[in-house]
Amino acid sequence: QVQLVESGGGLVQAGGSLRLSCAASGRTFSSLSMGWFRQAPGKERELVAATTWTGGSTLYADSVKGRFTISRDNAKDAVYLQMNSLKPEDTAVYYCAAGQKMRGEYTYWGQGTQVTVSS
């Protein structure tokens, strides 16, 4: 089992930045791919960014490319999402997730953290 706890969400003005953190505990974190998902009201959950267990490969949703950066620190069992140039449409609950493959199914999920971007 892996437990994931997100933090760092909040209210920010458009154009601002936030850094989300996800702390992991449980089984070996460093062997898992990690992803950040988000779900806005009335919309389906979408993958925002993901990284392999080494951090050597990443992927991003087209809507966040060039603005968001995912990173991980396996020594600290943590993964981060740096969000810059935030837009109102980035408003959502953001979830951290872990799975065997970056492009596969994610098995473990955090409880989510709210990000609200005001215009």
Sequence-ordered SSE layout with sheet pairings:
Elements: E1 2-7, E2 10-13, E3 18-26, E4 33-39, E5 46-51, E6 58-60, E7 68-73, E8 78-83, E9 92-99, E10 106-109, E11 113-118
Parallel strand pairs: 2-11
Antiparallel strand pairs: 1-3, 3-8, 4-5, 4-9, 5-6, 7-8, 9-10, 9-11
Mean pLDDT: 95
Report the major sheet.
7 strands, mixed
Order of helices and strands: EEEEEEEEEEE
> Structural class of the secondary elements?
mainly beta
Strand segment count:
11
Straight-line distance between termini: 40 Å
If you compute it from the alpha carbons, what radius of gyration comes out, rounded to the nearest whole angstrom?
13 Å
Explain the overall architecture.
This protein is mainly beta. 0% of the residues lie in helices and 55% in strands. The protein is built from no helices and eleven strands. Strands 2, 4, 5, 6, 9, 10 and 11 form a seven-stranded mixed sheet that branches. Strands 1-3-8-7 form a four-stranded antiparallel sheet, with no helix packed on it. The protein is globular, with a radius of gyration of 13 Å.
Key features of this structure:
119 residues; four-stranded antiparallel β-sheet; mainly beta; seven-stranded mixed β-sheet
Describe, in short, the structure shown.
This protein has 119 residues and is mainly beta.
